[in-house]
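Appendix B.2, paired examples.
Example (i):
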Amino acid sequence: MSQPFYSSFGGFPSTDGPWRRRRVFGHGAAAHEAENEYYSDSEQTPVDDSISSGSLCQYKPFYARKDKDGKTQWTTKEPEDAAEPVEGRSTAKYAFLVRLRKSSDTRKKYDLDSVVVQSQLLKTQLGVALADYPGVTTSLERLVFSAPFRPFVHRWDHLTTLLEDSEGDDPASAAHLKLFLDLLYTELKEAIDVKTDLVRNGVITFEHLWTICEPETLIFGEQYGQQCVWELKHTSNCNSQDGVPYLSLAVWSVDFDGSRFGKSHGYLDIHYFEGTVKIDELEYFPLDFHTQRNTVARALIARGKSFAALAGYHYKWYTGVALAEGKARRMVRHNVESRIIIDCNAYNGSLPNYSVSVGSLGKETSPFFLEDDADSVESEESFEVVQGAFGRPLTAKEYLLCASFVRGFALRAKLWLWLFVDQIAAIRFNDNAFDSLQLPAHQKRLINALVKTQARCKDNFDDVIAGKGRGMIMLLAGPPGVGKTLTAESVADNLRVPLYVMSAGDLGTDPSAIEVKLTFIMDNVARWNAVLLLDEADVFLEARSVSDLERNKLVSIFLRMLEYYSGILFLTTNRIKNIDDAFHSRIHVTVNYPKLSETSRKHIWEAFLDKHSSVSNNEIDELSKLDMNGRVIKNIMKTALMVARSEQSETDDSPAKLDITHIRTVLAIEQS
C-alpha cells in the first residue's frame, strides 16, 4: 500500500510503553467511553525540543480499531484492510449512484439501500415532483435518498405524470427520470401496487397505513367528542409497553396563546388492527377519504372563524360539557350552564403549569379547496378576515385547522376550563332587573349614577399615593332576601360586565392564603372590568378585638386591599352595627335595605308570576300579607312550578300552568 501523504507528520513518543491510556476528564457515559479508548505510537519518533507544543502547522492522523475486548484503540498505523473510496472522479459522470446491500429476503439477492442523485436534469425534475415535501431539498449538491423511499411512494402518481409530460418537451430530462423511476419501481412495486389496490377498494391494512399518510395531508378525526382536522407532519411506527404496534402521527393544529395564533403540536395514535379496515372507519384518516368531505370542511371552517373571533377577552354564555385539566394532563368533564369569561392570558396566568404555547404559523399555508372542479373552486381568499391584533389574517385552511375549544373561566363554578366553541352563545341580559329592585327611587338613582360614572372614569381619580383610592366600594346592609345580591347582579347586567361573586367561605380562614386568593381575584376582576360582590362579608368587616388576633389579621389584610382596588365592589352584611371603624372611611356609599313591606312583597310576587299563571290579583294580595323575604318567595315559586309541571304529561312541552293551589300546597308544607 502506498504511503499516505501525511505519513511524514511527527508523532509524540510514549512515556510508559507502546500503549497509553488517555487521561479522562468528566464522569458518566462520556467518561466511560473515554476509559475504553487507547492511543498507540507505532512509530517511535524522537521529540524535537525546539518546537513548542501546538506550534507546528501540520496535523497528525490517528486510526481507530478495536482490541480483543472491544475497546477503541487509536493508532498512527493505517489499517491494511481499508478500501479505497468508491466515489470520485470516475463515478461523477453517472446520473445517479445505486447502493445495494445483501438482502435477507429469499426472493432477491440485493436490497436497494440508497441512491445518490448527481444529474442536474434529474434534480430539476425531482424538484418539481417533490416540491414542499418535508425533509427533501433537491437543490443540494449531494442529494441522497434512502430506503424505504417514502417520498416516492407518496408522490408516485405525480412523478409518472411528470415523466409523460416531459417526454415530448425535454427528452434528455425524461430519459434520466425514466431510468430513475424504473430502478425505484423494482424496489417499490409491491408498496405502490398494494396501495393502489387498497385505495381503489376504500380499505387499508395496518402495514400500509403510512402509504396514505403523506406529510402535509389533512387528517380527520374526533377529539373530546368534537370533529377536528390536523395537518400531518410525519408518521412513526411505534410499539406500546405491551409490545403492540401502533402508528404515531405527528400533527399540528391552530391554537391561540393569548397573544397570537400559532401552531400547536401533538400526536395522534392509530392502534394496530388485523386485516383490512375501511379507511373512513379508522380513528384518524385523511380528510380526502371522508364521504362528506366538503360538508365537514365547511362546518369546521365556520367553527374556525368563530374560534378566531373569540380571541382575546369575551363575556359569553355557555351550555354543555366543558373540560378541566387535571393531574397528569387528564381531562375532567364538567357540566356547565352559566356565564363565562374567555381569556387565554388570564388562563395562562392562573394555571402556569398548563399554559398555552404555540409556534409561528409562518407564511400563508397552501390553498384549501372545497370543490374538486377547478371552475367552481372556493379557495381561502373567500374566508379571510382581518385578525391584525393577533398576527396576519388566517386562511381557509388555517380556519379548518383551528382548535375546537377556547380557554376561559366559568363564573358560577369558579373553574378554569376548556370551552367548546359550538356551545358558546351571547348572553341574554336582564334589562328589567334594576327596575324591579324594591328600593326608594332616589337610592336607585344614586347607585346607578355612581357605578356608571366609575365604569367610565375609574382612572381619573387617584389618592395622594398613585394607585390608591381608585375604586368604588358600596356597602349593602339589611336582612336576608331584601335585594342586596340582586342589586349587584342588576348593576352588572346594566353595565354589560361580569359579576364575580365570592363569600368568606370561598376564601378560607388562613390569612396568608386569603391574601393570595384576594389578590388573584381582584386582579382578574379589574382586568375584566367586572363588578365584584363579596357576599356576607361580616367576617372581614366586623370590628377588631384583642381576643381574636387571627381574625384581626383578616380585617387588616382586607382593609389594605380595599385601598388599592380599582373596580366596583359591593359588600353585603346583615350586621352593620358591628363594622370596624376603619371601614367607614373606605366605603363610599352605604345603602340600608329595610325589611320588605307588604307592597314590596306584592311587587315581588307579581314579578315571579308570569302570564302562564292563573293567580288572581286578590290571591296575590293574600300572598303579599305573608311575612316573607324575596329569597323565600323565589324558592316557593320554584317549588310550586315543579309541582305544576309534574301534573302535565311527559310529552307536553308547554309551560306549566300554575295556579294558587300549587302555591298553597307548597306553603302548607313549609308551615307544617
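Example (ii):
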Amino acid sequence: MNILKKGFTLIELIIVIAILGILAAGLLAILDPIEQINRATDTKYLTSAGEIKNSVERYYASKQYYPWCTSAGCATYRAPCTAARSRTAFATGGTCAAAVLTELINTGELKTGTTVNSVINLEVEAGGDPYQLSWVPASKNVKTQYAAVVGNSGVYVAPIATDACATIGTAALCPNTSATCTYCLFK
C-alpha cells in the first residue's frame, strides 16, 4: 500500500512565514506610519488655517476692515489685539487670535462651535494688513516645503519667537535645533 502525503513540511512553512515577515517589515518601513500620522495632522492644520483665512477675507469684504481691527484703516485694534507684529495662538483664551475667532463666529463667517487647534498662530502686521497664519509642521514632508520668496506660503525659519514668518526656510536651516521651522500661510 502506497500512501501519498500531500502538503508542506514544517521547514517549508517556516521559510514561507519568514519571507512574509520580511516583506511585512519592509512594507512597514516604507510606509512609516508615524510620518503618515504627522502628514495627516499637518493637512488638518492647513485645512483649518485655510478656513480661517477664507473667513477673514469674507469678513473684510463685508466690513472693509479685518476682525482684529475696530474700524477701516485699522486705526484701533479689537481688545486684546493691542500690538502689531504680535503672534498669538488660536484656542488660547484672552489672546488676539481667540478674540478674532469669536468675532468670526459671531458674524457668521465661521460656524458656531468651530474650534481651532492652539498650535495655529495669527500674526498681524502694522496697520492690520498683511497677516499670516502659522504653525510648526510635524511631518518631514511638510518641513521640506521651503518658501522661495518672502510672502509665499511655505516653511520659514523663525529668527525670534514673536516673528514666525520673516526668514525664508532652507534645507541648511530646517530642521535645526537652534531655529524653529514654521509653516506660514500668507494672506
